Amino acid sequence: MNHPHHYEWSNAVGRLEIRQLEAKDAEDFSALRRVVTADSPVPMGLSMDEELTRPLQGFRDQLSSPAPNAAFGAFVDGALQGCAALAWTSRFASSRHKAELWGTFVAPNHRGQGIARMVAGRAIEHGRNNSLQRINLMVYIPNAPAVALYEGFGFTPYGVEPKAVFLNGQFYDCQHMTLALNEIAATA
Q1: What residues are paired with 87 via a beta bridge?
Q2: Is there a domain that residue 122 lies in?
Q3: Paired sense of beta strands 134-141 and 79-87, if any
Q4: Residue 8 has pLDDT above 90, yes or no
Q5: CATH code: domain of residue 11
Q6: What percent of the chain shows pLDDT beyond 70?
Q7: CA-to-CA distance for 42 and 36, rounded, in angstroms?
Q8: Residue 83: which of 127, 119, 47, 125 has the closest Cα?
């Protein structure tokens, strides 16, 4: 059944459902993170050994953060295959106009099917619906598919953090990107 926070349809990928993740999804979320990290740790920004130290309760807490924080999952034939999340990074009113898009990743066997675009789009829509004016993100580079995805939504780069992570004996930079939406002129 469709409602404003739940989407279902069928296509060549299979039966696809996009919905907000909850604490009960923590095991699937953790398992997907491990599959993605094992395939390619650089986009995740941590090693597999580091990923394996992350407790399940931490994911439960993260997925049950109070609104307007939200993580969205793409389920293909009932299995979590992709996600994207939006987090307000400050509890103070002075920074409530912006959030961070994080955790956008897709299982290796489901890449190239538009799933990342769907879940990231749902997270951005959630930001618009919650009166955000800006969404920021970071992407470890090189990662041309992710940069292209974000540029397709209108994100623009605003800086590079050199040597942001050290994985497999090599440093990787982090590209910071931002998307302006719901711009409202500040009043004096």
Answers
A1: 100
A2: yes
A3: unpaired
A4: no
A5: 3.40.630.30
A6: 89
A7: 10
A8: 119
